[in-house]
Amino acid sequence: LTAAEALADLIEADTAAQRRQALAQASGRLATTLEAWRARLIEAGAAVEAAIDFTDEGDVPATVARSVRPAIEALRRDIGAALATGRGGEILREGFRVVLAGAPNAGKSSLLNWLAQRDVVIVSEEAGTTRDLIEVRLDLAGLPVIVTDTAGVRDTASRVEQEGIRRALARASAADLVLWLVDAAAPEPTVPDAIRAGRARCLKLLNKTDLVRAPLN
């Protein structure tokens, strides 16, 4: 099963890192690790059963029973360490999700176009141009990255724009990284609670600094 999944991942791989991961899994590395865990668990289970069934008869040394707990603890640590890296493998397979968020006209769409090196999103001085999620898959140094442009966050009476903002906040709360863009020439908006409470790390980017007149000495 793991080999079949690895083949499917290899076929769908978009980046070099994804291909390396799929090839490693196809080579049987994961299956070998799982089989080793299984063997250790069976060995520990057999020792426990022997200690329970034959202790009264004196056929099982007491050291056998005492050795089971350290063996189980070592196995638990190994499995825990593997699970801790599981999120990294998931990101490598599905892509690292970055969300561009901020107030209207903070420069989110311009940044997305620059990252994609093409005109993906309409850029306008009119606030509220982006109302839906616009997603672009990028290959950054062999790593898959999914960048999403979102509607500008603000108070508005427009139901369409309100829905766009709701979707923006929902996507941001589920992202791996949120880039909160701030217009250097405008008052800094407060990062919404929905983003603060999400799992994603949030980085503030001060944008349009070239449009701000430098103070005179």
List the main descriptive attributes of the protein structure presented here.
single chain, about 220 residues, alpha/beta, Four Helix Bundle (Hemerythrin (Met), subunit A), Rossmann fold, 2 domains, 5-stranded mixed β-sheet, 8 helices, 5 strands, about 15% strand, elongated
- Identify the CATH homologous superfamily of the largest domain: P-loop containing nucleotide triphosphate hydrolases
Question: Within the largest sheet, what's the order of strands?
Answer: 2-3-1-4-5
Shape: elongated
Instruction: Give helix and strand order, one letter per element, not per position.
Output: HHHHHEHEEHEHE
Q: So what's the CATH class of the largest domain?
A: Alpha Beta
Helix content: 40-55%
CATH architecture of the largest domain: 3-Layer(aba) Sandwich
Can you walk me through this structure?
The protein contains eight helices and five strands; from the N terminus they run αααααβαββαβαβ. The model has no long low-confidence stretch (mean pLDDT 80). Helix 8 (193-196) links the parallel strand 4 (177-183) and strand 5 (201-207). By secondary structure, it is α/β, with parallel strands linked by helices. The protein folds into two domains: 2-90, tRNA modification GTPase MnmE domain 2 (Four Helix Bundle (Hemerythrin (Met), subunit A), Up-down Bundle); 95-211, Rossmann fold, CATH 3.40.50.300. The chain has a five-stranded mixed beta sheet with strand order 2-3-1-4-5, sandwiched between helices.
